[in-house]
């Protein structure tokens, strides 16, 4: 709990940059894909990420949408996008805070945090000594979700127009998914290792 409180207090100390919706979405997509023009392991980088999250969440609420999608007992994680996944990891790691989101997703994130409070405290503690590893996990998870979406498209194409070319494309995409899954697993192991070392 102390780690979460410290991160929240630190996050209140600086004014965050302001973005238009389109600019915010561009930054968030870049962050999700591992190509952000900022380093989330620095105070300046986190401020840019939080500013983008606030701007985009506010715009989505104004449009009558809830963002990000936070999994519950009734929802399927398979429905989450790469951007959703990256935001969940960013929140769990303390890169962004609940106050950066609008009311409904903020409440859902806090409920999810209570359910996994011990893991969240450990992860936020690990960020202090293993920020790069946690950021790498977020990037790996985002790439995995992108490859899974590409797999869905390739599968639909193979079913609609069966043939050797489609089958070969599907096979190659399966290999990319497997590689992304392994990359994510390795990144997770590295985070777990640093978390145990920090205990």
Describe the structure.
The protein has 199 residues and is mainly alpha-helical. The protein is built from seven helices and no strands. Helix 2 crosses helix 3 (43-62) and helix 6 (117-160) packs antiparallel against helix 7.
Detail the topology: elements first, then pairings.
Layout: H1 2-11, H2 21-32, H3 43-62, H4 82-93, H5 103-115, H6 117-160, H7 164-198
Helix pairs in contact: 1-6, 2-3, 2-4, 4-6, 6-7
Instruction: Characterize the largest beta sheet: strand count, sense, and whether it forms a barrel.
Output: none
Work out the radius of gyration: 18 Å
Q: What is the average of the pLDDT values?
A: 83
- The portion of residues assigned to helices is over 70%
Strand content: under 5%
Shape: globular
Distance between the termini: 14 Å
Number of domains: 1
Assembly level: single chain
Summarize the helix and strand pattern as letters: HHHHHHH
List keywords for this structure.
199 residues, mainly alpha, globular
Short description:
By secondary structure, the protein is mainly α. Helices cover 73% and strands 0% of the residues. The protein contains seven helices and no strands.
């Amino acid at each position: 709990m102390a780690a979460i409180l410290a991160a929240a207090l630190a996050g209140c100390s600086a004014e965050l940059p302001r973005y238009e919706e389109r600019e915010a979405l561009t930054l968030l997509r870049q962050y999700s894909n591992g190509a952000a023009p900022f380093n989330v392991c620095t105070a300046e980088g986190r401020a840019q990420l939080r500013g983008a999250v606030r701007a985009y969440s506010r715009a989505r609420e104004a449009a009558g949408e809830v963002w990000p999608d936070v999994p519950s007992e009734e929802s399927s994680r398979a429905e989450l996008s790469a951007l959703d996944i990256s935001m969940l990891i960013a929140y769990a790691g303390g890169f962004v805070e609940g106050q950066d989101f609008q009311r409904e997703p903020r409440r859902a994130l806090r409920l999810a945090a209570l359910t996994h409070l011990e893991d969240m405290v450990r992860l936020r503690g690990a960020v202090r000594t293993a920020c790069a590893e946690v950021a790498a996990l977020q990037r790996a998870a985002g790439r995995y979700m992108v490859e899974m979406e590409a797999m869905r498209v390739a599968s639909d194409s193979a079913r609609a127009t069966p043939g050797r070319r489609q089958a070969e494309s599907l096979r190659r995409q399966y290999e990319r998914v497997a590689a992304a899954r392994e990359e994510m697993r390795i990144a997770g192991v590295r985070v777990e290792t640093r978390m145990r070392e920090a205990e």
